[in-house]
Amino acid sequence: MVNIQAILFCSPAGPTEPLSMTMLDSLSTHTKLSFIHHIATNKIGQVANRNTTLALSPAMMETYSRLLVYVELESLGIKTLISSETLSWTWCRGILEKLQTNTPHNWATHTLRCFPSSLQQFFEQNATQMENRTGLKELVDESYRSWSGLTTDQDKVAYFTGKGVSPHFLW
Questions:
Q1: Which has the closest alpha carbon to 36: 59, 6, 78, 4?
Q2: 5, 50, 62, 87: most buried by Cβ count inside 10 Å?
Q3: Which DSSP letter does residue 14 get?
Q4: Among residues 28, 31, 35, 47, which one has the least CA distance to residue 9?
Q5: Nearest one of 149, 151, 152 to 141, comparing CA atoms
Q6: DSSP string covering 69-109
Q7: Contact indicator for 3, 28 with CB cutoff of 8 Å
Q8: How far apart are CA 25 and CA 79, in angstroms?
Q9: 63: exposed, middle or buried (C-beta count within 10 Å: 0-12, 13-18, 19+)?
């Protein structure tokens, strides 16, 4: 049994390096989900609820992101799909482009190096633009003004669930 506390929280400031891809590969899906649950409820939840003055460790957040990707990949069966010779790269590329369009993201270079070469090339060629801080701040401020001006719970739910609405928040 993997001791989550010992691995992720071995120092007061949290881990200084993310868990290696080799270690994450060796974990069961149950253990990966336990890690995700523990980080989300015990660390991210504390910061979100302002029960602590400590910042989250960048290494812990990188591990958390890696775990989320693992679970997503396993649930979609991408590992099997990518290794399958009968599956066309065009089909995979179409799925990846759709994912990148709907959930644009970039990978850290040390994480990207662990991907198969075809995925490395795809993400290098399809890197998303990072929003500048000023533009992002304006979007967050505008979203907050819109949201804070709503008076009823029904209006607030409608705001967050409406089609084409893309609220911006900083965590």
A1: 4
A2: 62
A3: -
A4: 35
A5: 149
A6: HHHHHHHHTHHHHHH-TTS-HHHHHHHHHHHHHHS-----H
A7: no
A8: 12
A9: buried
pTM of the predicted model over 0.85: no
Number of H helices, E strands in the chain: 11, 0
For 50, phi then psi, to 5°, come to 60, 35
- Domain locations along the chain: 4-125, 131-171
DSSP character string of 139-155: HHHHHHHHHHT--SHHH
25 residue type, one letter = D
What the block records as the tokens of 89 is: 């790269």
Over residues 52-108, the pLDDT tens digits come to 666 777 888 888 888 888 777 666 665 565 566 655 677 788 888 888 887 777 888
Written as one letter, the residue type at 85 is: E
Chain CA centroid to CA 87, Å: 27
Q: Cα(67)–Cα(72) distance, rounded to whole angstroms?
A: 9
Q: What is the pLDDT of residue 22?
A: 85
CA distances from 117 to 70, 82, 124, 158 (A): 17, 11, 10, 43
The pLDDT score that the predictor gives to residue 170 is 46
Condensed to tens digits (0 to 9), the pLDDT of residues 30-60 reads: 888 888 888 888 777 776 676 666 677 788 8
| Amino acid in the structure at residue 119 | L
